[in-house]
Design a protein that fits this description.
1 helix, 28-stranded parallel beta sheet
């Protein structure tokens, strides 16, 4: 970590992270045991949910029911209940209506994130996008609440919900002239930050070393950010990093004595301003044109185990790793850990692993740190895949985890003579990872990608927010940036998370895309087939479980195009509990557009319990608009 005392930054109120009193928490109605009261009648209803919020400064965050809020009630049958009239009790009491439910036992809010079965319901807080002009508006999609009831049918008259999230409130002042783009929480605590929990018993499904939210619409160095988190207990220091529009990462760390529990229903405040922090403020190490590679500590059998990795503590260490891999050292079965944020300002970027002949085969833990700045290069015979990592492969097993890319990616494909049917990949984190022996866990992308160039006869081009061409297993990855694609090739696959996944045995679980994809006249050679574009993947095989798209797909193609909220094209796999939460797909083509709010085109695949709760849509699959999702055999869950 580079420490700069010349320009003082975050004066941190020792993480005012105050466990507030009940009068300072997410405000609840006190007329029914201190919990929100909902009167229930039995009529038809159903809608996507929304809750309004107000922050009165002194009393924390106040929640109010609004029109079209909806929850799901589970029993022998399940139904969605929706608000139908004015609220009272200062907006904390409302009437909801829905069909009678036999043997009702559980309720889940919001309905937009409820599953078909109570056992499958979970809370997930990745993919947050904070509007600087309405900093708590996004919480409506993360305000998870549950309730229990033993009543049945028309006997239900009241349901009392309990909050299941906490909220971190950050008031930040950045250096003059800098506005925020992303905010990242990270911890080195082995337990990690709770990212996903089961609603049934509140056990952790997924923990992570980092949680990132995008900041949109910021115009000032001062801003307030509200971040939803799940209840958990941290035992070690918490780090917060803010990526500015200058590409710099500004960070600080905070320690606390003993275990620190985040409790559901509470707002924790932290103020970050100039001046007063003992060691100045931390900024990213600079990786520029003049950085000189220097070796890391290799004593004491370092690099041999996950608990004793090689430490990448500087831009020089990272440069040395790139040089060694480029020289042919793959580091099979070795372990690396990044310990500092790095801003890349070099004119060009050489990824870790440049080709099939010179891959990276080690394990890499990003430590929750951020790579910012610019990653720029163009296609050549030696460099055909691009990202922070270029080409990965292993004969053993390999884990890439806990790394956040907030850098802009600029890549141009070449137009060589002749033809090629090779797969070329470009991703924010990984360009090409073609084997099931690789696992990608808890990696995020929040930069902007601009992909251009190419030859209609040359190459299958795969572009993804996290990974371009994938054969890997992937879990808990998210993208909140933007991709502008204008390339041309023998085949083109574009995804918010994955360009193309080509291996049937792979699994992709709990990934969220909130990034937008812009098509700027991409083209492929054979107009009898299509360009495939999807919120999660352009073209997908294998299993896709519990993934969610919130990102838009817009623009124009020169070739036919398949567009899907989850995937443009899927084949030979199972797709379960996936959601697309947007219909913002405005795509035109010189040829034809096949649009499915879930899938553009499906072939030899099973899709079930997907988009179960987001309202009625007929256009689930572009090739079969009459299709509706169903539940498969329980053993397949």
């Amino acid at each position: 970590m580079k420490i700069n005392n010349a320009i003082p930054f975050f004066a941190v109120f020792p993480l005012i992270l105050m466990g507030c009193t009940q009068d300072e928490v997410i405000k609840e109605d006190t007329s029914v045991g201190g919990k929100e009261k909902i009167s229930v009648t039995v009529t038809q209803g159903g809608a996507i949910t929304r809750i309004s919020h107000e922050d009165d400064g002194a009393n924390g965050l106040i929640l109010k029911w609004t029109a079209n809020d909806a929850f799901k009630l589970y029993g022998t049958t399940t139904e969605v209940f929706t608000t139908t009239g004015p609220t009272d009790g200062d907006g904390k009491i409302a009437t909801f209506t829905g069909n009678a439910v036999e043997d009702a036992q559980h309720a889940f809010f919001p309905a937009s994130k409820a599953e078909k079965r109570w056992e499958d319901c979970h809370f997930n807080v990745i993919g947050q996008v904070i509007d600087a002009n309405a900093p708590f508006a996004h919480l409506s999609g993360y305000n998870f609440m549950t309730a229990q009831t033993t009543a049945s049918g028309t006997e239900i008259s009241e349901i009392s919900f309990k909050h299941k999230i906490a909220v971190l409130k950050f008031e930040v002042t950045l250096p003059d002239g800098i506005v925020p783009k992303y905010i990242t929480l990270s911890t080195q605590d082995d337990a990690g930050i709770a990212i996903s929990q089961k609603a049934s018993d509140e056990s952790n499904v997924t923990t992570a070393k980092q949680l990132t939210a995008a900041i949109s619409g910021a115009s000032s160095k001062k801003f307030t950010a509200y971040m939803a988190i799940l209840p958990s207990t941290l035992k070690e220091k918490l780090a917060l990093a803010v990526t500015g529009d200058d590409g710099m990462v500004y960070s600080y760390t905070v320690s606390f004595n003993g275990d620190f529990p985040y409790e559901a229903g509470k707002v924790y405040n932290s103020e970050l301003t100039f001046g007063g922090i003992e060691d100045g403020y931390g900024t990213a190490a600079i990786f520029d044109n003049n950085v000189i590679g220097n070796t890391w500590d290799q004593s004491d059998n370092k690099g041999s185990t996950k608990d004793n990795p090689y430490l990448i503590e500087s831009a020089g260490h990272l440069k040395y790793l790139i040089e060694q891999v480029e020289a042919g050292e793959a580091y099979l079965d070795k372990f690396f850990k990044l310990t500092t944020d790095i801003k890349v300002t070099a004119d060009t970027w050489t990824p870790i692993g440049i080709s099939y002949a010179k891959p990276f085969s080690g394990n890499f833990d990003g430590g929750g740190h951020t790579i910012s700045g610019e990653l720029k290069e163009s296609f050549s015979d030696d460099l055909q895949n691009f990202g922070f990592f270029g080409y990965l492969t292993t004969t053993s097993s390999m884990l890439i985890e806990n790394i956040h890319i907030a850098a802009n990616i600029t890549w141009s494909f070449a137009s060589p003579e002749g033809t090629s049917t090779l797969y070329f990949g470009v991703g924010g984190v990984i360009g090409h990872g073609p084997t099931l022996k690789i696992t990608v866990y808890n990696c995020t992308m929040s930069g902007e990608m601009k992909i251009s160039g190419g030859n209609l006869a040359y190459g299958y081009l795969c572009i993804g927010g996290i990974i371009g061409y994938s054969g890997v297993h992937m879990n808990n990855c998210s993208s909140t940036g933007q991709s502008d694609v204008s390339c041309k090739g023998s085949l083109v696959r574009i995804g918010g998370i994955i360009g193309q996944n080509g291996i049937l045995g792979s699994e992709h679980k709990h990934c969220i895309n909130a990034s937008s994809i812009i098509l700027s006249n991409p083209e492929r050679s054979n107009t009898n087939y299509t360009i495939s574009v999807g919120g999660i993947g352009g073209s997908m095989a294998g299993k896709v479980l519990g993934c969610c798209n919130q990102g838009s797909i817009t623009g124009r193609c020169l070739s036919p195009v398949d567009v899907g909220g989850i995937a443009g094209y899927i084949t030979w796999g199972k797709y379960h509990l996936n959601r697309n939460l947007t219909t913002d797909f405005n795509v035109t083509s010189k040829e034809t557009v096949r649009l499915g709010y879930l899938i553009g085109e499906l072939s030899n695949a099973t899709v079930y319990s997907c988009n179960e709760s987001v309202g009625e849509q007929s256009q689930w699959i572009g090739s079969n608009p009459a299709w509706t999702p169903t539940i498969d055999d329980e053993n397949e869950h």
